[in-house]
Structure formats: C-alpha cells, structure tokens
Write a structure and sequence with these properties.
Order of helices and strands of chain A: HHHEEHEHEHEHEH
Organism (chains A, B): Candidatus Roizmanbacteria bacterium CG_4_10_14_0_8_um_filter_33_9
Number of domains of chain A: 2
Strand content of chain A: 5-15%
CATH class of the largest domain in chain A: Alpha Beta
Distance between the termini of chain A: 66 Å
CATH architecture of the largest domain in chain A: 3-Layer(aba) Sandwich
Function (chains A, B): May play a role in DNA repair. It seems to be involved in an RecBC-independent recombinational process of DNA repair. It may act with RecF and RecO.
Helix content of chain A: 40-55%
Largest sheet of chain A: 4 strands, parallel
Oligomer: homodimer
GO biological process, one term (chains A, B): DNA recombination
Largest interface: A-B, 53 and 53 residues
Number of helices of chain A: 8
Number of strands of chain A: 6
GO molecular function (chains A, B): DNA binding; zinc ion binding
Shape of chain A: globular
InterPro entries (chains A, B): DNA_Rcmb_RecR, Rcmb_RecR, Rcmb_RecR_Znf, TOPRIM_dom, TOPRIM_RecR
CATH topology of the largest domain in chain A: Dna Topoisomerase Vi A Subunit, Chain: A, domain 2
Strand order of the largest sheet of chain A: 4-3-5-6
C-alpha cells in the first residue's frame, strides 16, 4: 500500500475530506505544506484548532463573526432599511466584493430543500420574521436573493408569503423584491440556456 | 471590502496559498471547515503545527518518513538490488499504489532544470552516487523513472552518464534502464500526440 509518513498522511486525509479535492490532489497539497515556513504552519494550526470556538453568528443577520454583531450590522453607514436575504455567507461575500450594495443582509444558512429533508424550520427564516417584527428601524425593502434554482425559488416564495402575513398583521408597507433575471454580462446568446433566454425576453426593457 | 471573521479569513488565505486553489474556492473550503467536528480541527491543527519537525528524509532513499529509515527501505521483503529513481515522493506513491514494483527507490526531490536554476547539485544525485558506491547489497538494476519531459530526460541522461563513470571506476555491472514509452492504456490514437505516436512505433513489439 502507498504510504506517506503518518502526520503527512493525516493531513492528506484531511484535505481529501474537503469538497472537490481527490486523493491525488490531497497528497500534492500535503506535500506542498512541507515547503511553507514552520512558523506559518504553527500559526495556521493554532487557528484551525480555535476556529469553531471563535466563530459565532451575528445576532442580527446570522453572518459569521467573532463578536456579537458582524462588521456589516455594526457599520452605521449602511442602510438598515434595506435587507437582502441570501442563502450563504459566500453569497454575501459576492455582493460585498463588488461594493454594489449598501444595505444589510440576512443569511438563511441554507435553502428549503425537501429532497434533503431541509424544511423552513431548519434554516433561519423564523429569525428573519422576528427581526422584521421587532425592528427598531423602519424597513423599506426586502430583496430576496436566493439562488435562481428550484430550491432557491421555493425558498423565496415561502419567505414572500411569510412576509405578506407579517405586513398584514403589523400593517407594514415594505417592498418585497427578487433579483433581476436575464442574460449575464458577457454572455453569448448561442450558449444561453432556454430558461435564461425566456427570462431575458420577459424582462426586456426600453432602450 | 468583502470580509470574513479574522480566523476564517486567515484560513481562507492559507488555502489560497496552496497550488491550484483560487480565492473563491479558498473561501468555500474555509467555510466548509465550520461543519467539521471541533475535535477533528483541533487534531489536524496540532498535526499541522508539528508537521515539519516530525517529517524527515529517509537516510537511504530520501523518501519522507518520521524515522531514520522509511518503511520501504526497512522492509526486508523488498528487492534491494533494484533501485528506481524518481523525481518526487508523489511519483513513488504512484508506483506503490499499483503494487507493481518490489524493489526500492531513490528520490531526487526535483529535476535538473537550468531555466529555474536547478543544477545537478541541487537535487539528491550525489547521495545516489554515494549510495551505489557504498552499497552493502549487490545492485543489479537501476531504473530511471524521471518524467518523460525535457527536464526529466536531461536528468535521466545526466544520471546515466554518472552511473557509467561509477561502473568503470568500481567495476560494477548493474543494468541501467529507462521506463518504456508508448501509448498509455485506454488511449485513443486519434488524440495521441506526435511524440507519443513516434515512440509507440519505435517501441513496437512482436505480437
């Protein structure tokens, strides 16, 4: 049997558990670590050990943070009247990288996915309802930014219905919007799928 | 600016330093770690910290090991009269996975690569010479298993010349061989490159 030294082998097995990394890549990565300065490995080793105990969820938006509130909810320059609902922290990062959005977020940490037995109570929808009902700030708009796939759509629809109930109950008048659909910038019509093309016709605009 | 909590960010940056991992994948991997049990992260963190101090080179073949000698050189069932010379430990692993080879190895940890200023003295060729000159066992064959690219060929040729000098000096008669070239199993002639096809004609055999 192929065998690396035990500690190297363990690290290769660790890499292999990560998504998208096979056993050959895992070995290559483990081997690569031997080239890094010992100090770097020590420091990253410590951080890995403490990762879970250090990382918490923001009590407002469920973003990941090391404090009680994340840097976005803490930032008074952000527009707290607009909340964008995303599935994961990675989706939030995509918006933040572009610097195109000045509001705040709510992270669901998942989507409604009956095939994998994930229901509305398994993601952070209830927290969103409470957040809206008890908000100190006036909420003007809620943007549903779940992914445009089947589960993402279902999640968006479920949340929209919940939001309507809250609006009736609490006599609130915020807008509920969904991200725009159509051709991505730089796309080629030739390679666009049927669903995207049909949305791009439906959502055509004056020009 | 997009921002993860500090410890998560540091781990993402660590992943990003690894070959073949971009910043999006690095973020995804770091995020995935939060799903692993804390105990696993602690244990892998410790192993990372100790990785470099624990991993040594086998004093015989330069394979990686936690002892003085690697498990292959220590294995008395292996045929010590045949030495296969490979560039890296990963190459050794490929041979070992197949369980197709019963001899021992010598790992160069690199190849002669003048464009990147790596000369014969920068890889473990001198150790190989000493190993052969001072061997307790009779050496019958040395298989040059460097990669079939330009640098691998140059390295193989350099070592072959060195071995011939040693043979003359010490009146030794071991065979020196190179791995067979030709079409890989499962290949399609249609997609084979010129060099491979030409080798496969040159190395054709009775059938």
């Amino acid at each position: 049997m192929a065998k690396l030294p035990q500690s190297l082998q363990n690290i290769a097995l660790f890499f292999e558990r990560l998504p998208g990394i096979g056993s050959k890549t895992a070995n290559r990565l483990a081997m690569y670590l031997l080239r890094l300065p010992e100090q770097d490995l020590k420091s990253i080793g410590e951080q890995l050990s403490q990762l879970k105990s250090r990382t918490k969820m923001c009590k407002v938006c469920m973003n990941l943070t090391e404090d009680n509130m994340c840097h976005i909810c803490n930032d008074t320059a952000r527009d707290r009247s607009t909340i964008t609902i995303v599935e994961t922290v990675l989706d939030l990062l995509s918006f933040e990288t572009g610097n195109i959005y000045k509001g705040v977020y709510h992270i669901l940490h998942g989507k409604i996915d009956p095939l994998n037995s994930i229901g509305p109570d398994d993601i952070f929808i209830r927290n969103l309802e409470l957040r809206i009902q008890n908000s100190e700030f006036e909420i003007k708009e809620i943007i549903l930014a779940t992914n445009p796939d089947m589960e993402g759509e279902a999640t968006a629809m479920y949340i929209r219905n919940k939001l309507r109930e809250i609006q009736k109950e609490k006599r609130l008048t915020f807008k509920v919007t969904r991200l725009g659909y159509g051709l991505p910038i730089g796309a080629h019509l030739e390679y666009a799928d049927y669903g995207t093309l049909s949305k791009s016709i439906e959502n055509r605009r004056d020009f």
